[in-house]
């Protein structure tokens, strides 16, 4: 953890390299987050039209409202991290919000759970939680990853960002 640096403590390294162990968790978490986000988003309009029986205009409008919220919430994530919780706690707490959003959204898609009003309510609550989760962690993860490296490990930090963005794109493409 970057907070340990300067106190005489060293972070454990990954397989004898200068990469902190935390980097593996950051890269895998980001891959999974992008995989789940784009996988869900790819079928979202179809879900609205065929499962919730909305017309194409409403489905498209809600899809774009959700996408817009996902682009707005990084401002909130940055505010939370910079003025209240810090990057690490913001990532942890909003990742939990993100997962809860996916669970709520998934429960809303179970045919035997309630009526169409409950399906819509759960789906919308789930989407809002997903938007806050994904947007909230977005401004923190890359900076937190960079913070894991000592100043003398600039080459490793540069390679980390290449691997980090490759994992984001791999998760997006594979979804």
UniProtKB/TrEMBL annotation:
Q: Where are the transmembrane segments?
A: 61-79, 91-110, 116-137
A Gene Ontology annotation in the biological process aspect, one of them, is: oligopeptide transport
* InterPro entries from the UniProt entry: MFS_trans_sf (IPR036259), POT_fam (IPR000109), PTR2_symporter_CS (IPR018456)
Q: Does the keyword Transcription apply?
A: no
Which top-rank group of organisms is this from?
A: Eukaryota
The subcellular location is: Membrane
Instruction: Name the principal localization, coarsely classed.
Output: membrane
Q: Name one GO cellular component term.
A: membrane
Its membrane topology: Multi-pass membrane protein
Family matches, as Pfam families: PTR2
The UniProt keywords, alphabetically, are: Membrane, Peptide transport, Protein transport, Symport, Transmembrane, Transmembrane helix, Transport
| Family, similarity comment | Belongs to the major facilitator superfamily. Proton-dependent oligopeptide transporter (POT/PTR) (TC 2.A.17) family.
**What is this protein's name?**
Solute carrier family 15 member 2
Source species: Cyprinus carpio
């Amino acid at each position: 953890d970057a907070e340990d640096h300067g106190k005489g403590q060293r972070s454990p390294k990954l397989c004898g390299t200068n990469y902190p162990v935390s980097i593996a968790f950051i890269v895998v978490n980001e891959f999974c987050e992008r995989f789940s986000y784009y996988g869900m988003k790819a079928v979202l309009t179809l879900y609205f039209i065929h499962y919730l029986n909305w017309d194409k205009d409403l489905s498209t409008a809600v899809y774009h409202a959700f996408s817009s919220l996902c682009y707005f919430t990084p401002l909130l994530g940055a505010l939370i991290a910079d003025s209240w919780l810090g990057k690490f706690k913001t990532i942890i707490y909003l990742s939990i919000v993100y997962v809860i959003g996916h669970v709520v959204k998934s429960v809303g898609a179970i045919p035997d759970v309630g009526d169409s009003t409950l399906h819509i309510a759960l789906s919308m609550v789930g989407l809002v939680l997903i938007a806050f989760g994904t947007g909230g962690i977005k401004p923190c993860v890359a900076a937190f990853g960079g913070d894991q490296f000592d100043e003398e490990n600039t080459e490793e930090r540069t390679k980390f960002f290449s691997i980090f963005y490759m994992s984001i794109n791999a998760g997006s493409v594979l979804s």
